[in-house]
Amino acid sequence: MSLNSFGHMFRVTTWGESHGPALGATVDGCPPGVPVDAGMLQHWLDKRKPGKTKFETQRREADEVRILSGVFEGQTTGTPIQLMIENTDQRSKDYGTIAETFRPGHADITYWQKYGIRDYRGGGRSSARETAARVAAGGIAREVLKTLAPGLRIIGGLVQMGPHVAHARDWDEVENNPFWTPDAAAAAHYAEYLDGIRKAHSSVGAVIEVVAQGVPAGIGAPVYGKLDTDLAAAMMSINAVKGVEIGEGMAAAALTGEANADEIDMGPDGPVYSSNHAGGILGGISTGQDVVVRFAVKPTSSILTPRRSITKSGESVEVVTKGRHDPCVGIRAVPVGEAMMACVVLDHILLHRGQVGANRGAIGGVV
Amino acid sequence: MSLNSFGHMFRVTTWGESHGPALGATVDGCPPGVPVDAGMLQHWLDKRKPGKTKFETQRREADEVRILSGVFEGQTTGTPIQLMIENTDQRSKDYGTIAETFRPGHADITYWQKYGIRDYRGGGRSSARETAARVAAGGIAREVLKTLAPGLRIIGGLVQMGPHVAHARDWDEVENNPFWTPDAAAAAHYAEYLDGIRKAHSSVGAVIEVVAQGVPAGIGAPVYGKLDTDLAAAMMSINAVKGVEIGEGMAAAALTGEANADEIDMGPDGPVYSSNHAGGILGGISTGQDVVVRFAVKPTSSILTPRRSITKSGESVEVVTKGRHDPCVGIRAVPVGEAMMACVVLDHILLHRGQVGANRGAIGGVV
Amino acid sequence: MSLNSFGHMFRVTTWGESHGPALGATVDGCPPGVPVDAGMLQHWLDKRKPGKTKFETQRREADEVRILSGVFEGQTTGTPIQLMIENTDQRSKDYGTIAETFRPGHADITYWQKYGIRDYRGGGRSSARETAARVAAGGIAREVLKTLAPGLRIIGGLVQMGPHVAHARDWDEVENNPFWTPDAAAAAHYAEYLDGIRKAHSSVGAVIEVVAQGVPAGIGAPVYGKLDTDLAAAMMSINAVKGVEIGEGMAAAALTGEANADEIDMGPDGPVYSSNHAGGILGGISTGQDVVVRFAVKPTSSILTPRRSITKSGESVEVVTKGRHDPCVGIRAVPVGEAMMACVVLDHILLHRGQVGANRGAIGGVV
Amino acid sequence: MSLNSFGHMFRVTTWGESHGPALGATVDGCPPGVPVDAGMLQHWLDKRKPGKTKFETQRREADEVRILSGVFEGQTTGTPIQLMIENTDQRSKDYGTIAETFRPGHADITYWQKYGIRDYRGGGRSSARETAARVAAGGIAREVLKTLAPGLRIIGGLVQMGPHVAHARDWDEVENNPFWTPDAAAAAHYAEYLDGIRKAHSSVGAVIEVVAQGVPAGIGAPVYGKLDTDLAAAMMSINAVKGVEIGEGMAAAALTGEANADEIDMGPDGPVYSSNHAGGILGGISTGQDVVVRFAVKPTSSILTPRRSITKSGESVEVVTKGRHDPCVGIRAVPVGEAMMACVVLDHILLHRGQVGANRGAIGGVV
């Protein structure tokens, strides 16, 4: 069963554990003739790499990606692309006590309950290191999108950290702060707040928003391959994510029909909307507006404050997770969310091309 | 492409339009030897049926389900089960103007942009009538679960309507009010509030919570077949849903690591937890706690207040959606959410049985 | 698990038993905007229907197909098409002894061993009646192919019956004989031979050849979605099929490399080949030549000569299968093979469109 | 689209080209707790490796497999297993003329027509080197089968080469000759015949038979996931295969119902059959008899005799394929066929476990 795969047409299978020899992604269904090289992917992996600022774990991971197949003379061939990232930092350290103890908030206990096997080396398959493979695959998707949807832009950032919510959405701002937040004022609040969290050896959650601008109208599909269904699955599959919202999200519950309606006018290039409560998706199909997704990441479970837990033999213990951890893993989830968005949007463009093709609708449909 | 299907092992494909001859679900992968008859499914269809109280649309739909295949002498045979619900209320009415106009908030415009075809009869495939087929399939799942997970209970209800939030979680209360809310006090607030909405010809959104009690520890799978991933997709695929939460949900963003930690103790039958911020899922795998999902339903888009829109030829119009509509579609989404939960949980039990089987873990794993 | 489904993009799920209320096919992934009505499908169902000549079973089956969804105002909508054929001849006859006995050569015993459930009414799900649903789905595929590959022609016929092998391939001859054989001389031999078989209450096997002319070069995909892989699966899934060949088939084993080579010249419209040992497929991808598939159907297992078998309780019995059976089921397998070819070819055209699109190769590739 | 994947539960995706940096297989869905190391897999890779006798190409390929993920402390973990084989012999040689010419019988021309990209280095993705990855994955399947079906034995060999057909089936004989044929007399004929072919710079086709002994009754599934359907697809997906047979195969066409019937008696451990025309499968489900598959491999297309072809620009050329080629590629297809059989049988055992479980039938069903 391909439970480590996602995507219908652009099919990505990730593999690998945090402390094994390597991890990576097998990408099947990539169109041929697209210029791709490892350097293009490295750009995104570097965005996800830890240790760029004091707000991230100070671990060193080279995260260099190699392309082992599916690219020939600088172009995709249409055959599976194998992306491999070797794990350079696999020193055999003393896992003695950790190996016997379940860390609260981690998947240690559920993997053990499911498989009866525990890869105690830093989380094994459940480690967030797996998301490096997603980012590499997302890099491929971005290159394909350049050829199929030239005006498309995918951009994300932190819009909430702990109690601090970003209100502005200035997407040109994201490169100016270490949180990729589209709100310069929020960036300042985050920095001060997170400094406190970090010094208290605590951690905090976050909300990430990812926006796709320039998505053609008409992609997505009823009723279990909806664009929003696939986005919800994509984002919820990221480590530590506990909620996903499209457009108005959970707040839609508090609105009346009048307040929630996005009115429609005819613009020069197709329909234009008075607002975007829908988040760019109606009935699972894109409207041509910005596709807007948000997801909440829980606070890092590894903290220095002692927490009660049990061992494999059922004895009570206190767990303190030492080591270098991100005080807010949400920050490094930004490029991961962007990668998932790129994969899902590309997937649905390919699907539309295959299943509908030129038989498209009249008003601003997909080319 | 099976975009109208969901589930890995227990695979449900729904088909049909709101005003065609019939709609239904094809269920492939149901284990053999499970007692099933149409009456068992009818119970759940009746729960979803409109017109039970003044808070629902007064349309009449018989919603009688027939089993056309896969059941012999009262037992499932292991072959596909075809469930058909005939549409009794298909009178040919004058759709003249509606057929040319896009209703704001509906999928009329995106279907048109995607397919160039519009089934204007009440929403066609994008109609919430499709969820009747899900409820029928969920009824099958419930019968199978009785044999595979005898202690399991799946129950849901409205936990928010407009500004009113339910705080209690007394699941024995849900049969006592028309909102299946687990909070008797909230029920009173909902009733009064919705009466006002209804009389104002408006509509309002809602949050539904669905809980699965007695889910065995160890079901789910890394990393794209996570239990929470599949639940997020299942709920987001329901009409009008804009957000999905597991456990703490979006609120996890505001917590610190200390506040979010579910501490673990050893109980007589396996691990017990001090709290359930995780919503019963760690690393995509069930912990044995209650699995808790919430989803937000936007307000009914069909309202009597005029809204600006365009026609197929791009001309501006004002749209007023007459007819009998639910003032809060969230109410009738409760049995739909329960059905999706039943399908997903069963699916993962079958998956676990196939992929892990007896090679399971030591502490309270799946039998 | 969708084990009752086939196809990647054009996805067909069949359901139903020989003596249940109905059987049919759910077709997901059909492009929109294609003119379809039940009459178009009926043409192919009538070709498969029994009792047309003395060489077929004299059972009466109306085999009338209804379209329950996915077609609106005479056009496909892009949503699932539900095709239903009601079983009219379900009289409750005395199955008393049959229900307890396993008929040699039938799936009675293996279904019992697998499921512990036996639908003894004429084979249940394993009955060849299931192929009526395939033929209906194939009818849809043919209509779509008219729009996507206008010059395509799919035609099949009996090329071997018992010891008699057809040598000619005059495909305009097939409508002139009850075996749809492309060899008039063979038709005469078949008729005389089968008359003897029929009168001896025996049965005989057959080989069917199905040819697709005008398949564009470049469809198919490495390495497990090869065009020939999918054709082999499609044909082997038909009841009673024991072998599948592409082009030279099993005879390729006896050839040398020189004899087997199809030499290539450049013609006015692309490459032309000196021969077609390859059966129109190289490396799993179409060459533009005729795609040629053959499959062998075993003799009808239901014969009047007594055969030794056992009962459900393990006692020895002699089985004589009375009733009206086809002396050569291979004849009625012809439209089934054609339907499978239509589905597979369409599926791969849609796949190519989605995954490769305009990025195609230079010499006579798919448009 | 996962067109480079096969299997339902035990899901194998192969990747890589003949002259890229590496090739391999991603195995998803392997049960946990199974002892596996690279040495176990190497045994089967060595069986497929070229250059063992004068009857095979004298190319050197190290074919050393590394396990990059999914195995921890010598046991499978239940997460994806990445198997990588580095290509050691990738010297940059002068492909100048080959790169512009299409070799008859090869996929050069169809890949070009499909993708507009040609990896001219030894066949690229269409090279038979891809089968090394299958053999590695098959090695994993064999280890799992040891735990799930202890008595199972999978064995194959050449049963036809050119005009020479093997009649004996002494499976203990296969290790005694370089053709793994179960007929010692045939081995002598093959050797003499192939020596002539080799010296004439020609090539020849072959038929391979693969048998699975000890397959439990009751695995397989109607009607598109039949055991024989999946075996037909698995074998037809191997390079150069043109035909697949189950049991009696194409010869079933020449039989009468009386001759083809496998009569049933009750033995001490379940049903026993008087013969095995069915090849161990009825209605797509195993009977408990030997599962018998045969497939025909065409003669190696690369021969020294000149053959007419065209260049990418459409000019006529004569092609002579120099280099070290197998005179009968069928020989090295034996371990590949065995690997596919192992994967398919394991896949269906896992499927049965998941979908039917303990609800199995009464007479000798799957445990």
UniProtKB/TrEMBL annotation, chains A, B, C, D:
<dbReference type="InterPro" id="IPR020541">
    <property type="entry name" value="Chorismate_synthase_CS"/>
</dbReference>
<dbReference type="GO" id="GO:0009073">
    <property type="term" value="P:aromatic amino acid family biosynthetic process"/>
</dbReference>
<dbReference type="GO" id="GO:0005829">
    <property type="term" value="C:cytosol"/>
</dbReference>
<dbReference type="InterPro" id="IPR035904">
    <property type="entry name" value="Chorismate_synth_AroC_sf"/>
</dbReference>
<keyword id="KW-0028">Amino-acid biosynthesis</keyword>
<feature type="binding site">
    <location>
        <begin position="239"/>
        <end position="240"/>
    </location>
    <ligand>
        <name>FMN</name>
    </ligand>
</feature>
<feature type="binding site">
    <location>
        <position position="48"/>
    </location>
    <ligand>
        <name>NADP(+)</name>
    </ligand>
</feature>
<keyword id="KW-0285">Flavoprotein</keyword>
<dbReference type="GO" id="GO:0004107">
    <property type="term" value="F:chorismate synthase activity"/>
</dbReference>
<comment type="subunit">
    <text>Homotetramer.</text>
</comment>
<comment type="function">
    <text>This reaction introduces a second double bond into the aromatic ring system.</text>
</comment>
<feature type="binding site">
    <location>
        <position position="283"/>
    </location>
    <ligand>
        <name>FMN</name>
    </ligand>
</feature>
<keyword id="KW-0274">FAD</keyword>
<dbReference type="Pfam" id="PF01264">
    <property type="entry name" value="Chorismate_synt"/>
</dbReference>
<feature type="binding site">
    <location>
        <begin position="298"/>
        <end position="302"/>
    </location>
    <ligand>
        <name>FMN</name>
    </ligand>
</feature>
<keyword id="KW-0456">Lyase</keyword>
<feature type="binding site">
    <location>
        <position position="54"/>
    </location>
    <ligand>
        <name>NADP(+)</name>
    </ligand>
</feature>
<comment type="pathway">
    <text>Metabolic intermediate biosynthesis; chorismate biosynthesis; chorismate from D-erythrose 4-phosphate and phosphoenolpyruvate: step 7/7.</text>
</comment>
<keyword id="KW-0521">NADP</keyword>
<feature type="binding site">
    <location>
        <begin position="125"/>
        <end position="127"/>
    </location>
    <ligand>
        <name>FMN</name>
    </ligand>
</feature>
<dbReference type="GO" id="GO:0008652">
    <property type="term" value="P:amino acid biosynthetic process"/>
</dbReference>
<protein>
    <recommendedName>
        <fullName>Chorismate synthase</fullName>
        <ecNumber>4.2.3.5</ecNumber>
    </recommendedName>
</protein>
<keyword id="KW-0288">FMN</keyword>
<feature type="binding site">
    <location>
        <position position="324"/>
    </location>
    <ligand>
        <name>FMN</name>
    </ligand>
</feature>
<dbReference type="GO" id="GO:0010181">
    <property type="term" value="F:FMN binding"/>
</dbReference>
<dbReference type="InterPro" id="IPR000453">
    <property type="entry name" value="Chorismate_synth"/>
</dbReference>
<dbReference type="GO" id="GO:0009423">
    <property type="term" value="P:chorismate biosynthetic process"/>
</dbReference>
<keyword id="KW-0057">Aromatic amino acid biosynthesis</keyword>
<comment type="similarity">
    <text>Belongs to the chorismate synthase family.</text>
</comment>
